[in-house]
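[stage:ingest] chain + small molecule (iron/sulfur cluster)
[stage:ingest] validated
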Amino acid sequence: MKTSDIPSKNRCELLAPAGSLEKLRTVIHYGADAVYLGGREFSLRAHATNFSREELREAVAFAHARQVRVYVTVNIFAHNRDLAGVADYLQWLAGIGADGVIISDPGVLRLAKQAAPELAVHLSTQANVTNGQSALFWQEQGVAQLNLARELTLAEIREIRQNCAAGIEVFVHGALCISYSGRCQLSLYLTGRDANQGDCAHPCRYAYRLQEEKRPGQFFPVEEDERGTYIFNSKDLCLINRLPELVSAGVDAIKIEGRMKGIYYAGAIVRIYRAALDHVEQALAAAPGEPLTMPPLFMEEIMKLGTRGYTENFLDGPPTARDMCYTGAVVDQTYVPAGIVLEAGPRPLVEVRNRIRPGEQLEYMEQGLRNSPFTVTAVTTEDGRPLPQADSGSRVRLTTEPVLAAWQPYGLLRRVQAKADSH
Ligand code: SF4
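[stage:predict] done
[stage:export] C-alpha cells:
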C-alpha cells in the first residue's frame, strides 16, 4: 500500500519510535498511528538497530497494511563528505512508499526537494524551531510537519500553531537533554561518542564531583548528598496529563522518544498514550471547550514502567531544580516483560523474554488498558513436549488458567517484579 491509500490525518497522530522490526510490529499493535525509524544510511541514533533497505521495505509494507504511516529519519548534520548518495537514498525511500523523511539539515532538505519532491519532509526537533517566524521559514521551504523544540511553553506552542499552516508535532514522553534539544558535545568530550551523530552515552546522567587540579583525590563538598551531585541530570519528559491542552491547541502529532528503548517499554508506553489520546478526543468531542482533567489511571500505568522521575519540562515555563534528578538514576519498575505472543489461540505460542515456569502468575497486556492476569498451568515445546520451564529466547506454548480469548500476535506478557530484583 502506498502513501495515498492511507486516509489523510484528521486527528492528532500518535507517533511512536520503532528501533527494530519487532518494535515496529509491537507499537503498531498497541495503537501507533505512525512510526519513525532510521535506515542504516544518513540517520542519527547510530546504536539503534537501524533498518537495512530490505527491512525498511518490509517495515513500510507491514505498516501500510495496517494503515500506519512510516517516517524515516535522514537527520544527520551533514558534512560535504556525507552528502554523496543522499539524493539516491531519498529517491529510493520515495519509491518504497515511505510517508516522509525527518531531516534537520537544510542541505538535506534542499536535496530532498530536488531529488524526491513527492516525499513529505518533516523537521526534526534538532532544527530547534522556537518561534513562529522560524516555523514559517521552514514551511516556506516546503516542510510539511515541524517537530518543535522541546524548550517551548504551551502558550508558545499554541501561538506557533495558530500562525503556521504546516503540521505541528510535539514530544510528549521520553528522555530529555540538559543541553539545547540534543545539541551537545558532552558525550563526545567525555566518552568519544558523538551525540550529534546519534551516539550519545548520556554522560549528563553521571554523578559529578568537583576537584581542584593540584589536589588529586580531594573532592570539594558540592554534593547534594553522599552519592554526588547530579548537576545535569534532567528527569524524563511526561506530558500525559497535559494532552487535553495539547490536543485543544491543535497539535497535529504527539511524539514518543525512545528508538533505543526495549520492546516492553515501547509497547507499554504506546499503549498508554493510545488509550489517553482516545480518551481525550472522545471527551473533548462530547464536551467541547470544557476543561478536562486526566484520570489518574494513565499515570499509574506509566509508573509501573519505572522512572527516574518525570517533568513537564518547559510547558509552564523554564524547568527548575524540581525538574532535575539529584538523587541518581532511580528505577522503580514494578513489572518486567515475560514474553511476546507470536500466535494466538487457546494455547498461545510465545517468545519468552524472561524465564517462565508453570505455576506462576503473569499478566497479558491487552490493547486498550486492560490487563488480564492468568496462571501458567503448563509450558510445552511447539510440538507439545512438556517443559519444567521456558528460558529467555525460546518459543513455547502456554496453557493458562483462565484460557484467555484476548491473545493477539505482538501482544506482551509481563510479571510483577520480585521485590529483591527491583533495584
Ligand atoms: S549528554 Fe545528555 S544533554 Fe548531552 S546529548 Fe546526551 S543526553 Fe543530551
